[in-house]
């Protein structure tokens, strides 16, 4: 399995139905109280692409990608139109939109990274919530438009983006206690969730009645930093 540098058709992606899932286990005690054990540190997203297919041409694009990706074997990029900016999408991207991330000790969860005068590589993340924040690893950012800042000062150079995984590496370690931030847009690495695509020709032929929406599932693929 490898990641292909190709993208799911954006016009079809715009009509997809999205699901965000977390895996946990609810245990009801004899007292009636509950304990909830978290099995996944990171959430996982999935989409039903069938809702975005409106024409035979749309379907042809998706089928071509299905064949190119060898079904479930290889992953590719997907534009989640509901969430693809480092901010909420209502304002221009800035270099201070999000903190850079660092793994919390003995965990696969991320916390805000700060400079220590030694570490040079940090994870791009997006923060959700305010009190009990979740930092989502961003593993497929766009290099175009990517902005990085140290202590609120944009850095036009002196850093690089990893080929995969969404890691920012500084040429020189940021100074001790430095605030590290970034702004970006991103795609999500996904694969087809099933080994087949089911369609009905009648769905695309208005003169023969109404068929059912094609069933085409996409599942987020965890890459590099996105373990857990």
From TrEMBL:
Boundaries of every DUF2460 domain copy: 6-220
A Pfam family matched in the record: DUF2460
Protein name: DUF2460 domain-containing protein
Domain of life (superkingdom): Bacteria
NCBIfam families in alphabetical order: chp_TIGR02217
Family matches, as InterPro entries: DUF2460
